[in-house]
Design a protein that fits this description.
Blueprint (H helix, E strand, L loop, with lengths): L8 E2 L5 E2 L7 E4 L13 H26 L14 H9 L7 E2 L5 H6 L4 H8 L33 H14 L6 E6 L6 H12 L4 E7 L2 E2 L2 E2 H4 L16 E5 L3 H15 L16 E6 L17 H8 L3 H11 L5 H24 L23
Parallel strand pairs: 3-9, 4-5, 5-6, 6-10, 9-10
Antiparallel strand pairs: 1-2, 7-8
Helix pairs in contact: 1-2, 1-10, 1-11, 2-8, 4-11, 5-6
Bound molecules: thiamine diphosphate.
Cofactor: thiamine diphosphate
Pfam families: E1_dh
Protein name: Pyruvate dehydrogenase E1 component subunit alpha
Length: 374
């Protein structure tokens, strides 16, 4: 891997500053992968396609339900970023812990959350994945090693490092994945967590989903150096940059780096047998506003039109047709079955009751007889 030396220069107190190697970064884009080169069967690709479509249709329907006031509070859509969730989940193990911010529906559905439990959560109903008390920003599914869904920007990053530390401490062989937005990378929480992750060689992937905007502020306007992949350097972490609109690139990258971070293969920052963190920038795009109340005045129609050609679902659909992995009729049928699954989820959510008042204090503290609750 490329590594250049910075020129030696005197420090202010006269001692020589040691050579600083430029840390390497690996790029996962334009690699020309095919499903065959990745060892994926037609069924595998079809399952991934269906999953991405499920996320898309789930959120389109959720937006409609929000308009009908079936859903209240916040609703942040993941539309455009589905290759990230699906590629990451397919490229890692089912029990590798995942934690993310409030744009969480896509990752939860990729991890296999029940669509009914997801929709019921949006409706604030008792059969929701967080018993109707978390809402859109707080999806949770412990059985699927999905640890949320967090509304405080950057707050999930230290918890994600903790999940990675638990993998190491308990010797599970797992690697945690902490997802966060480009806005969150400027929070102190990221830097403290990254430092500890590096210090303790925690098997964690610190993943910034760079969708180009934090609310209405573009990365270029909020960051002195918009090359976010450099953010692991101060902590001695190796970095990767992934084309997040390309399902195969994301899948291949996560398969590679997850095994490196869990210490099962060499590369990046360590030898086999040595766990360590890796910093990951996934370059992606969100097609919708920050939340349902965002009029999106900060970007032009031309920008959004241009990005439509990169739609990860359209791209994989084209690939499947070109490589004769499916027919247009079969893909239409998948769409119909996905829409039917989402409609069933809506019906399930409609029929589920709101949480009874006495459940208000449940699930707040682990300790059952917490003295302040009577
Ligand atoms: C600590 C904190 N500060 C501010 C907010 C308000 N807020 C919610 S989302 C957001 C922008 C975050 O953008 P980014 O991390 O890029 O994620 P994206 O929404 O683009 O996925 C802000 C400032 C918050 N929720 N928490």
């Amino acid at each position: 891997m490329a590594s250049t030396q910075a020129p030696e220069a005197p420090s202010p107190n006269g001692t020589a500053i040691p050579d600083v190697p430029t840390p390497d970064v690996r790029f996962f884009r334009n690699s020309g992968h095919t499903h065959e080169s990745l060892g994926l069967s037609a069924d595998d690709v079809t399952a991934m396609y269906r999953n991405m479509l499920l996320q898309r249709r789930f959120e389109e329907r959720a937006a409609q339900m929000y308009g009908r006031q079936k859903i209240s509070g916040f609703l942040h859509l993941y539309i455009g970023q589905e290759a990230v969730s699906t590629g990451a989940v397919w490229g890692t193990r089912p029990d590798d812990p995942i934690i993310t911010a409030y744009r969480d529906h896509g990752l939860a559905l990729a991890r296999g959350m029940d669509t009914g439990a997801g929709m019921a959560e949006l409706f604030g109903k008792i059969d929701g994945c967080s018993r109707g008390k978390g809402g859109s920003m707080h999806f949770f599914d412990i059985d699927k090693s999905f640890y949320g869904g967090h509304g405080i920007v950057g707050g999930q990053i230290p918890v994600g490092v903790g999940l990675g530390f638990a993998c190491k401490y308990k010797k599970t062989g797992g690697v945690a994945m902490a997802f966060f937005g480009d806005g969150a990378i400027n929070q102190g929480a990221f830097h403290e967590a990254a430092n500890l992750a590096a210090l303790y060689k925690v098997p964690v992937l610190l993943i910034v989903e760079n969708n180009e905007y934090a609310m209405g502020t573009s990365v270029e306007r909020s960051r002195g150096d918009a090359n976010l992949w450099k953010s692991g350097y101060p902590y001695g972490m190796k970095s990767v940059v992934i084309d997040g609109m390309d399902l195969f690139e994301v899948y291949h990258a996560f398969k590679t780096i997850a095994d490196e971070a869990r210490g099962e293969s060499a590369g990046g920052d360590g030898a086999p047998g040595e766990t360590h963190p890796i910093f990951v920038e996934v370059q992606t795009y969100r097609y919708r506003g920050h939340s349902m109340s965002d009029p999106q005045k900060y970007r032009t129609k031309e920008e959004m039109e241009g990005k439509k050609n990169e739609d990860p679902i359209v791209r994989i659909k084209q690939y499947m047709l070109e490589h004769e992995l499916s027919t247009i009729e079969a893909l239409d049928e998948i769409d119909e079955s996905v829409k039917a699954e989402v409609m069933q989820a809506v019906e399930f959510a409609e029929n589920s009751p709101f949480p009874p008042e006495e459940t208000m204090y449940e699930d707040v503290y682990v300790q059952k007889d917490y003295p302040f609750i009577s």
